[in-house]
Amino acid sequence: KQEVTQIPAALSVPEGENLVLNCSFTDSAIYNLQWFRQDPGKGLTSLLLIQSSQREQTSGRLNASLDKSSGRSTLYIAASQPGDSATYLCAVGSLDYGQNFVFGPGTRLSVLP
Amino acid sequence: EAGVTQFPSHSVIEKGQTVTLRCDPISGHDNLYWYRRVMGKEIKFLLHFVKESKQDESGMPNNRFLAERTGGTYSTLKVQPAELEDSGVYFCASSQGSGRIYEQYFGPGTRLTVT
């Protein structure tokens, strides 16, 4: 059974800091991993998709890495801004679980001005 | 391009009543997924359509839940009769294809409250 965990559960940082969010999964037989952000009361916004054959993806100030063998992905946010405050979710697409995602519980990020 | 839309945004019903949630995927997306988050839990998969066919419904909690996607366009998720534990946020997502290269795009969700 695929299980996804995210550390830390919550994080509060001053504006301008670089930060790393962690996602771990138990079954390395994945085909992709997607990072999302969720603002309060809103839906999920896709940030980055990493395919199983890739090691990282970048979009603007965001960089996501994937290490399948160790069951880990990290989301790096450079020069954080108050607008980055949201809950960040990682979702793992596993070969043994059809074409759907297994989600982690999320990391709640607060960037203080 | 319009994103995934869901209706209603919020529904409050009494235990034992019926509720139907609707999802309109991004135009041209053959794959449609339903997920839900109940209080304090992670988002969980419910089912996956490819066009009008149910590809995977392993996450459906019980037979009180019925999902349809007639014509392979929009989808409905009916809960009948609703129970208290059905309260939560129901998300719909769509993707152009299925597999490792395809992103899933999520709608804003429908918040269901069963009293």
Give a quick set of tags describing it.
heterodimer; A: 113 residues; mainly beta; six-stranded mixed β-sheet; five-stranded antiparallel β-sheet; 0% helix; 59% strand; B: 115 residues; seven-stranded mixed β-sheet; four-stranded antiparallel β-sheet
Oligomer: heterodimer
Series of H and E elements of chain B: EEEEEEEEEEE
- Helix/strand/pairing class of chain A, anyone? mainly beta
Helices and strands of chain A, in order, run as EEEEEEEEEEE
Biggest pleated sheet of chain A: 6 strands, mixed
What coarse outline of chain A follows from CA principal-axis ratios?
globular
How many extended strands of chain A? 11
Largest sheet of chain B: 7 strands, mixed
Uncertain runs of chain A are: none
Compute the separation of the termini of chain B in Å: 37 Å
Count of extended strands of chain B? 11
Most residues in contact: chain pair: A-B, 27 and 26 residues
Envelope shape of chain B: globular
Please mark out the parts of chain B with pLDDT under 50 across 5 or more consecutive residues, or reply none: none
Q: Which percent range fits the helix content of chain A?
A: under 10%
| Mean of all residue-level pLDDT scores of chain A | 93
- Considering DSSP H and I runs of 4 or more, what fraction of the residues of chain B is helical? under 10%
Please give the radius of gyration of chain A in angstroms. 13 Å
